[in-house]
Amino acid sequence: xxxxxxxxxxxxxxxxxxxxxxxxxxxxxxxxxxxxxxxxxxxxxxxxxxxxxxxxxxxxxxxxxxxxxxxxxxxxxxxxxxxxxxxxxxxxxxxxxxxxxxxxxxxxxxxxxxxxxxxxxxxxxxxxxxxxxxxxxxxxxxxxxxxxxxxxxxxxxxxxxxxxxxxxxxxxxxxxxxxxxxxxxx
Length: 186
Prior knowledge:
With 186 residues, this protein is mainly beta. 5% of the residues lie in helices and 39% in strands. It has a single domain, classed as Jelly Rolls, CATH 2.60.120. It has two helices and 13 strands; from the N terminus they run E-E-E-E-H-E-E-E-E-E-E-E-E-E-H. Strands 1-2-10-7-12-5 form a six-stranded antiparallel β-sheet, with no helix packed on it. Strand 1 and strand 2 form a beta hairpin. The mean pLDDT is 96.
């Protein structure tokens, strides 16, 4: 397993060891031991799997507030996405910075996103399946989002007219949200 440091503090690209032959391939999508050997300690408690039918579907910018915050290990098992993480931890050296990483069924890459981040992905192909592990259970009362094109964040999505849910179309701006993450040095 290869761990790649990104430009945003505490966000890592995980490249699993893929073993293949003429029949196909196999890789470990999660190994607590291998992650801990790399200094990454997470206790994932929930797996989620989504399907997006059309290219240009944007899901995000999402987060869980307060004690319901979630760290995520995300990957694309069918198709291609551009995945985004935005550091919302006040006092972090990369506060309000974002990173975008292409994840696909072919590259097998995963993105490890700690608590205190906004998360989103944009489908680059039709028929995308996206999976993620979370280290905290989903909490409907703490479910929040920020408007996808908030100028204070300034993500370069590569599109002006993504396909959005009503919830994401009507999300508040960052300045109007109740986001409350604080960075603490580990």
